[in-house]
Specification:
Blueprint (H helix, E strand, L loop, with lengths): L16 H4 L1 E2 L10 H11 L3 E5 L5 E6 H6 L10 H9 L20 H11 L3 E6 L2 E7 H18 L6
Antiparallel strand pairs: 1-5, 2-3, 4-5
InterPro entries: CBS_dom, CBS_dom_sf, Diverse_CBS-Domain
Protein name: CBS domain-containing protein
Keywords: CBS domain
Length: 161
């Protein structure tokens, strides 16, 4: 039986990170400024932005929360242009987290989920041969949960009235 995500009950025990990760995630470079990074997060409705070099090696990670924290305080009496200038003058290399937890695409989803839970992080960049190949977020796990619930619903016997 296949569900919305394409997973079958039989394959569920063999599910890997590659099966549920977001492939080709939106990325930034160390030269990306705060304004550009915020636009990427807002436009694509994402909360985590991997920072890579030209060869797609993972250098760091910024979250939407990191980006908002790096902005000038909304309490400061700055004009819109002054605030924008501040965002353009600061690049991600100044705020990105460089000690990033990552996972291999062949790792089990269960191991990745436990890692996210144990370390209380919102995502795991997926790295293979030192290059970013995807990202695994809490939203991906919500998709798996929905699939499991659908499978359970479809497997339950119908109880007559």
């Amino acid at each position: 039986m296949l569900c919305r995500s394409g997973l079958s009950i039989r394959s569920l025990t063999m599910i890997t990170v590659a099966d549920i990760m977001t492939q080709k995630p939106h990325i930034a470079t160390v030269d990306t400024n705060l304004e550009q990074a915020l636009k990427i997060c807002q436009e694509f409705r994402i909360r985590h932005l991997p920072v890579v070099d030209k060869e797609h090696h993972l250098l760091g990670l910024v979250s939407e929360r990191d980006l908002r924290s790096a902005q000038e305080s909304s309490l400061a009496k700055l004009s819109k242009e002054q605030r924008s200038q501040h965002q353009r003058s600061h690049s991600l290399d100044q705020i990105m987290v460089t000690k990033v937890h990552s996972v291999n695409p062949h790792a089990s989803v269960e191991d990745a989920a436990r890692h996210i839970e144990n370390h209380r992080i919102g995502c795991l960049p997926v790295v293979e041969k030192d290059k970013l190949v995807g990202i695994l977020t809490d939203s991906d796990f919500v998709g798996v949960a929905i699939t499991l619930l659908e499978m359970q619903r479809d497997q339950e016997p119908l109880i007559p009235d």
